[in-house]
Structures are given as C-alpha cells and as structure tokens.
Design goal:
- Its main location: cytoplasm.
- It is found in: Cytoplasm.
- Homodimer.
- It catalyses: D-fructose 6-phosphate + L-glutamine = D-glucosamine 6-phosphate + L-glutamate.
- With about 375 residues, the protein is α/β, with parallel strands linked by helices.
- It is built from 14 helices and twelve strands.
- The strands form three sheets. A five-stranded parallel β-sheet has the order 4-3-5-6-7, with helices on both faces. A five-stranded parallel β-sheet has the order 9-8-10-11-12, with helices on both faces.
- Strand 11, helix 13 and strand 12 form a beta-alpha-beta unit.
- The chain is globular and about 55 Å long.
- It starts with 7 loop residues before the first helix and ends in a 17-residue tail after the last helix.
- The structure holds 5-amino-5-deoxy-1-O-phosphono-D-mannitol.
Length: about 375
C-alpha cells in the first residue's frame, strides 16, 4: 500500500525518519549514550586484524562509507569490494578477520558466494540484512537486522540509510572495544545518531526545491556526481539512483579525481552534482567547482548553510542540508540524492518503482 504517496519509492523516502529511529533504538542505549548491540558478538573487535566487507550495488556503497568510519573511529583496517569481484579473485585471508556482508534482500547470489568463500577461509561471518529469514542471514554467525520494514521500490532508499545507521553503530562499538574512542566520544557519536531522524526530516524539506532542479536535470544526457571522503560513496550512490530510474547516464567520482580525467567531459551541457557540506577540505571543493564553472559546467551543490555562504558565484543551484557533524553527513546527504533521482524520473515519466531491466533481488549472477 502506497498510502498517500504516488510511488513506493517516495513513500519509502519519507519513511526514513521513522525507520532510522526504529533501527537505532535496536543498536543504541539512548538513555546512557552508549551503543548496545542487539546480540552478543561471537568475536571481539579488539583482536580483529581486518574487516572485509562485500556487497553489491547500493549496499556496496554503504560498505564504502563504513570503511571511512571503521578506519577513523576504530582504527581497524577495512577492505571493501563488490561481491562479484571479491568471490573470484581468491583473496588471501588471515585468521582473526571479520567478514561482513550487506544485503537488503539477503539473497543476492554474488554476496552469498562471497560469504561462503570467507567461511571456507575461517573468517567470522557477520551480515547486515533486512530479510531476517534469508539465506545470507541463515549462513552468518551473527546477523545485524536493519529493522526498516519491507522495501518494495527497486531503487533502495530506506534500506540504505538503515544499513548506514547500523554500520555507524558498529563502528562506534568497535572503537570502544579497541580503545580508540573514549566514553565521552561514544556519548557524542551516539547522540548524533539519536538526532538523525530530526535531521533527515529537515533534509526532506528541500523536496520542492529539488523538484524544480530536476526539470533541468531531466534534459541532460550525462550527469557527474562529485564528493570527498565519506561523501564520495554518496556521490556514487546519487549517480546509481539517477541511472536506475531515469536512464540518464551518470557517474560518481571522488572530487580529487576531477583533474585526472573527468574534467575533459565538462561543458555547458554537463550538470555536476557536488555533495559537499562545509568541512576542513571545503576549500579544495571550492577550487574543484571553480574548475567546473570555468568550463561552463552547471553546478548543483548539496551543502549546509555555511557551505552555501562560502560557495561563491560558481554554483547554479544549492540544496541545503541541516548542519551536522561529518560523522552523520553521509546519511543526511543520501536524502537529497534520492529525491533528485526520484523527481527527475517523475518529470520524465519513467516507471519509478519498476525500472526497466532491474529486479529487486538479484539471485542469479
Ligand atoms: O538485496 P541487496 O541489498 O543485496 O541488493 C544489492 C543491489 O542489487 C541493490 O542495492 C541495487 O543496487 C539497488 N537496486 C539499488 O537501488
């Protein structure tokens, strides 16, 4: 049932404040500002020497964001790969590694094959799934459910932000066990996750503005998405969402890679979506935007108030996200990229919930 919404995708986009609030309530002890995992871990983060994450599509991008979090807050080396590559390259794996699989459906063939490979390599097996009765869940030593309710739209939205919320909680838990964050830091990070539903509600308020921007975007043949750090995977996610439901060619790049190739594409016909809240590296993003604007590229900037103030004249359109710490920004910035793809698709009249050639669950290679 779509309720009052025209599409399941929009319904699921709007379910995110509640979904995340539900998800984090299973992973956090909000009264005491601590992480409280729903099950006892069959391994100890302290003795792990590596975390290996495998997944496909959007779930892979969630894993890429998690790499930034686990490395920064838990000082744990992380490898992330798409499951279809991982499973065939026979990577060597040391004992005391944790292998983590992210899958909404829990049935994705490549992700399952990667899981079985890691099991044969003696890794601890954990999964983050929505479907708790799924094969991936059954074959894991420990399952972290995302608790967001069924997701019907082929383009994943609420499952993605719920996966990210679980990953963020796990990164804090890992940091505490490994002694890389203090109790006070844990308290602050938990508080940021607790405030996410409110921040997401604020991010959803940009919908009308995004709807207007989408009309021009629908005329493009190609769109470039740029982001740095933990927002780089959100640029990839924005490009994937746009491709999936509008069939417009889009690519995500790390902003620093602009000069190493994609800048050759820039002309007046190429919109560039820059996902960049103000941070220590914002100056570098400003200079990237300048390079784009100097070649006639039209910039759509997703940023916070401070970023909007310092962005200058190079930017054609600005989508404001609420101010927040960089830790939670990837989850907040996922919202405008979902809405941008959604409204562009609606404007173009494509089949939003059932895009051509795609299936919700990819159970064959
Ligand atoms: O069920 P899974 O999370 O394992 O699915 C993985 C991908 O097929 C999925 O995320 C796909 O990329 C979505 N259509 C993204 O919107």
């Amino acid at each position: 049932d779509k309720g009052n919404h025209r599409h399941f995708m929009l319904k699921e986009i709007y379910e995110q404040p509640d979904a995340i609030s539900h998800t984090v309530s299973h992973y956090l002890d909000l009264a005491n500002g601590k992480v409280k995992l729903p099950a006892k871990l069959p391994f100890d983060f302290k003795s792990l020497n590596r975390l290996t994450i495998s997944a496909c599509g959007t779930a892979f991008y969630a894993g890429l964001v998690a790499k930034y979090w686990f490395e920064k807050y838990a000082r744990l080396p992380v490898e992330v790969d798409v499951a279809s590559e991982f499973r065939y390259r026979e990577p060597p794996m040391d004992a005391d590694g944790l292998a983590l699989f992210i899958s909404q459906s829990g049935e994705t063939a490549d992700t399952l094959a990667a899981l079985r490979y890691c099991k044969a390599q003696g890794q601890h097996i954990a999964s983050i799934v929505n479907a708790q009765e799924s094969t991936i869940a059954r074959e894991s030593d420990i399952v972290f459910p995302i608790q967001c309710g069924p997701e019907i739209s082929v383009a994943s939205t609420k499952a993605t932000t719920a996966q990210l919320s679980v990953l963020a909680s796990l990164a804090i838990a890992a940091g505490r066990q490994r002694g890389t964050i203090s109790e006070a830091e844990e308290f602050e990070l938990v508080d940021m996750l607790a405030k996410l539903p409110g921040a997401i509600t604020k991010a959803l308020a940009s919908e009308d503005k995004i709807d207007q921007i989408s009309h021009a975007l629908s005329k493009a043949d190609d769109v470039l998405y740029l982001g740095r750090g933990s927002l780089f995977p959100i640029a990839l996610e924005g490009a994937l969402k746009l491709k999936e439901i509008t069939y417009i060619h889009a690519e995500g790049y790390a902003s620093g890679e602009l000069k190493h190739g994609p800048i050759a594409l820039i002309d007046e016909t190429l919109p560039v979506v820059v996902v960049a809240p103000s941070d220590q590296l914002f100056d570098k993003t400003i200079s990237n935007m300048h390079e784009v604007a100097a070649r006639g590229g039209k910039i759509i900037l997703i940023t916070d108030e401070a970023g909007a103030k310092s962005a200058g004249d190079d930017v054609s359109e600005i989508i404001i996200v609420p101010d927040a710490h960089e830790f939670v920004m990837p989850i907040i910035c996922a919202i405008p990229v979902q809405l941008l793809a959604y409204h562009t698709a609606v404007f173009m009249g494509t089949d939003v919930d059932q895009p051509r050639n795609l299936a919700k669950s990819v159970t064959v290679e």
